[in-house]
Structures
1.
Amino acid sequence: MMTGLYIHVPLCEKRCRYCDFYKLTPDETDGMELFLQCLEIELRRLPKDFAPDTVFIGGGTPTALTPSEYGKMLEAIDRRINLAQVVEFTSEANPGTLTPDKLKVMRDGGINRVSIGVQSFHPRALQLLGRIHDADQAVQGYHMLRDAGFDNVNIDLIQSIPGMKPEDVLKDAQNVAKLEPDHISFYNLIYEPGTPLTKARDEGLVVPPGDDEEADNYFMVKEYLECAGYGHYEISNFSRRGRECLHNVLYWQGGEYFGCGPSGASHWHGKRFCNIPDLDVYTERLLKERDPFNEVEYLSKEEKARETLVMWLRLTDGFDLAEFKKVTGFSAYDLCGKGIDSMIEESLLQRTENRLRLTREALFISDAVFSELL
Ligand code: SF4
């Protein structure tokens, strides 16, 4: 089973109105030098036998770093991780922060996949989300990535944005397909507690589409992108053949990983822990060679297997029952045979001879299916 490294860069030019990831804006920090110094300490403290197959730099906005800061981060990673063994090295990118010299630093440092957050091509939607870029900048950013030589690019989009009609959602699907990225993530907008967008919704200032409309949009996008040559391989993810995101597939198949940086989450040898989402505490702890997290949760093998079962079902192909047993040590039916049988009866799960997967109908209501199985 592959292992992965995630790095959380706690910096964004500005806060988007829907986002609750941990980050600071430039006016809230004295720069990223100390973060980079402490990231290197944290990387050095990882277990000696940890040699990841995938690395994913997210955040925050990694490309909000200056070229020199970005280069220092890559050097720190290179000093600890054998990049020759890394098969996929992704960086997230915000179209409003890309420059040719930054992209050169990324390419030269070994990044071989970029995930660019476009979110929508509709001016009103981008404004409502509070993005720092417009649609033209997003398209330019995508072309800059291609010009810089990146041959594996994901575009992130969001659907169910208030005010967007079905034809607007379809237009977003058409616009993204026209760009021919290798991978497309099309997420449903989530109202995270405490964000300005959630507050606006609670005050009735923005009105989300109804469940039926969201479901219709979901299947409309699915069908459009499939016809355009993208395989729908995970609930919210589409890709050209062979361009699935290996780092995320690792999560979905119950693989182990370390997450560095403030708020980075790790799951390693039955232990689960999450770094404190506070840059000051994070750096203070690491400068004293202390762990940047508090509680460690110990998962039994059975708990881990149950989690893996629902995560793996996120993949539209589901899993091979024998492989699941080999990976987790448990039979899926021993873990939750009753739940599986009743979901099959309700046509939400499908069992072929050796595989278990969500049915098409279950894709949009997968959370309800998963909570039945857990
Ligand atoms: S750029 Fe990304 S991480 Fe930063 S606030 Fe916006 S959505 Fe969140």
Note: The longest helix spans residues 211-227.
2.
Amino acid sequence: MNFYTDNDSLKFHLTHPEMKKIAALKERGFADHGQYEDAPADADEAIENYDRVLQLVGDIAGDVIAPNAEEVDHVGPHIDNNSVVYAPGTRQNYDVLKQSGLFGISMPRKYHGLNFPYVPFIMTTEIISRADTGFGTIWSLQDCAETISSFADDAIKDKFLPRIYEGASCSMDLTEPDAGSDLQSVRLKATFDEANNCWRLNGVKRFITNGGADLHLVLARSEEGTNDGRGLSYYVYDRNDGGLTVRRLENKMGIKGSPTAELVFNNAPAYIVGERRLGLIKYVMTLMNDARLGVGSQSVGLCEAACREAVAYAAEREQFGQAIVNFPAVRDLLLAMRARTDAARTLLYETSRMVDTYKAYEAKGKIESDERADYKAAQRSADILTPLLKLSASEFANRNAYDCIQVHGGSGFMKEYACERLYRDARILSIYEGTSQLQVVAAMKGIANGAYIAKIAEYDARPIHSELEPLRELLRQATENYKALAEMANANAETDYDFRRMQTDVIASIIMGYLLIFDVERQLNGDESCKRSFMPSARFMCAHAHAESLRSVAMAKAYCK
Ligand SMILES: Cc1cc2nc3c(=O)[nH]c(=O)nc-3n(C[C@H](O)[C@H](O)[C@H](O)COP(=O)(O)OP(=O)(O)OC[C@H]3O[C@@H](n4cnc5c(N)ncnc54)[C@H](O)[C@@H]3O)c2cc1C
């Protein structure tokens, strides 16, 4: 089974019209062609390369990772002699991907990477997370390479990036017992050791995914006497250098194959990444935004897995003399699950394209004056879409997992069916990399300065097929309702959070509605890369946005009384 080729909506997003521009930007006018064996000559060749690698990942996901998922969930990792030992299935997954040369695919070719943009990299995480969401967390941590590549000096890049290609595992060590959502309170201490000309780390980190990793990116307090984010710097720590104890592994409800560790750093030597004091303000913020794309893709992968489990069961299970899929109540559940998956996916790849565009401009070094507007627009869009993606995709994954069990009836409550595991695995998605509540906080700026309304106006101005007009009309009404909601919110500061949550949910639904309309528009204009029509999902999401806006206005009026 191939988890890429059996899901042609992935090819649909991979061949989005913007992808040629992204490939050309990422390849800096295809300057590597002729210097490296795999460097493409043009955008078509670049997209063919992405497609080929995705086919390989799809094979591994379908034939190795998915069949291992159940056993990995039962066995899990353990600590042996201060090392984290993966479950045998996890080890096999890791080794097959490593032997296939797939680690570090988005790194520059100089470091043996394939120089892939985010869209295909994020797609690999979606595909792998469909097979096993817990393993998706381990896989996506290779994105730590991006932080090193963007901000570390050349000596650190030369030392660590080739190791990531060779399969060195990575972790992102931010959270501490007293610093979770509030990372400004991080206390793990970094002091400069003059005698040995290196930094030393001392303190505890908690809830660290892949905490037994070879390479760690660690947020630490370098400036004595400070207690806010401006006293924090960022470090890369090499496990081979000693000074780290894996104190315990958490006993979790889900993603059980993914080790979550408590770590004690004891005079551990480390290298500083970039400049002092910019650890949280700049580097972690960038890494977290990337990681939120990662959780978005894990969520879409889980949405897809839940959809497929539910569809297969509904076709097979008979009651009252017929397959349960024939009952409208079951079909409605399946339609909603498919619509949430399509909606979260289209937002995932729209956000990824924006991230790709602005990062590729930045990587060029000099942004020409005729490119500046495109760069700025992409950066603004990435900033405002990322919290919506993390919020909506993770909540949808939870909802799909819930509905998947509902379709299974009593069997869904039993360990024998995958949906029980999906339900447990989904639960973390709306918590790590910033809880749903924190995504609403992150969206507030765009709500307050009108950036979301401007984005919706931009989408609304695009020409569409007449068949899609009724759907656009629903979104226009939802937008008017949103504006009424915003006015009430501005007049009622004391119920701030309730209003902001409603506003964020409505905005996210409207944006996903437009994106699905554009997907159908592409199909109506002859794009046949996905055989299945996105129309039912577009109808569902536009109606959902409209209903959500009405409900929110009614609730807001009740609050204001
Ligand atoms: C399985 C797992 C894997 C993880 N992997 C990693 C990892 O690899 N690296 C890493 O550094 N961390 C990791 N974490 C930590 C994770 O990112 C944090 O658990 C998460 O950010 C929440 O922090 P907390 O648990 O301290 O909750 P708290 O911050 O204590 O939050 C508790 C509640 O308060 C709410 N809240 C807090 N502040 C606000 C606010 N300002 N406004 C509104 N609501 C608020 C939250 O939404 C939540 O509902 C992992 C956690 C788990 C469970």
Note: The domain at 450-560 is CATH 1.20.120.470 (Four Helix Bundle (Hemerythrin (Met), subunit A)).
3.
Amino acid sequence: MSSSEILAELKGVRERSYGEWTSFCPLCAVRKHRLLIREDAAGQTDIHCFRGHEDWEILQAIGKTRRALWPRPPHKYHAPDQEWWDRARLFANGKRLPPMSEQ
Ligand SMILES: [Zn+2]
């Protein structure tokens, strides 16, 4: 499954950079962009709520399971890096995109 199927169920989706979006968290009761969604080159999607909701809770709220995060075969799901949401993303052009907390 690709992130587009997850994004289709979320509200307030904004593209932030290539393969990265923000949206409202379906469990946070406010309309603020507190959810970060990132898809890697293998098609694995990672989701982070800046108020602490777990990815499985968020997926459950939109009628999906963690399987929705899985990459395209033959790639295997791997646990996301610790605090990946707080790391700058590096692009092919060498430009760094600062983490959300620094914007
Ligand atoms: Zn939340």
Note: Residues 81 and 87 are 10 Å apart (CA to CA).
